[in-house]
Amino acid sequence: MKEECDGLGAKYEAPDDLDQLYFREDIHGQQIFHLIDAVNDWKKEIDVLPSRYFDTHEDAIKYHGYSNYDNYLKLVRADTTRIGCAEVHCQDDGRRSYRVFCLMNNMPLKSGDVVYQIGKGGCTEDDASSCPDGSSCERETGLCKMDEEQ
After folding, report:
1. Which superkingdom does the taxonomy of this entry point to (predicted)?
2. Which domains does the chain have, with CATH numbers?
């Protein structure tokens, strides 16, 4: 975003110790982009990558540094509990572009890191250990939700 939108005053600085997602699309004609378009682009990486690229030893999906599916793995990481995104539509000299930048509250993935444990799906209210400390299972979604901060 920094380079592409400098003329519009859209600059960012990101800490190196937080995981990041970035989406860039040059706009042609009357196309309109939204945050969901960026998320869908990151998600579709899994559709084109053979499963043999995933290490499934010890009932876990582990990261191995293949950049072809970095964004997807960042989205599905089990230890991500917060994500914040900024989006900007840029226009400069008649050129239009769209940028999304997101930060997560965890360190960037390194080779060998566990992305998530292989299991039968979401958490259950009956099993308190199915969610990390400081979180509980949300019945409607089957996802772990961070407890309200005191």
Report:
1. Eukaryota
2. 6-119 (3.40.33.10), 121-150 (no CATH)
User: Which of 37, 113, 122 lies closest to 77, judged by CA?
Assistant: 113
Query: What's the rounded Cα separation, in Å, for the pair 97 and 25?
Result: 6
Identify the residue whose tokens are 């600059």: 11
Residue 59 identity (one-letter amino acid): D
Please give the Cα distance from 75 to 44 (Å, whole number).
11
- The pTM of this model reads 0.72
Nearest-Å Rg of the Cα atoms of the chain is 18
CA distance linking residue 104 with residue 70, whole number of Å: 13
- What is the DSSP annotation of the chain? -TTTTGGGT------TTS-EEEEEEEE-TT----HHHHHHHHHGGGGSS-GGGSB-GGGEEE----GGGHHHHHHH-TT---EEEEEEEEEETTEEEEEEEEEESSPPP-TT-EEEE--SSS--TT-GGGS-TTEEEETTTTEEEEPPP-
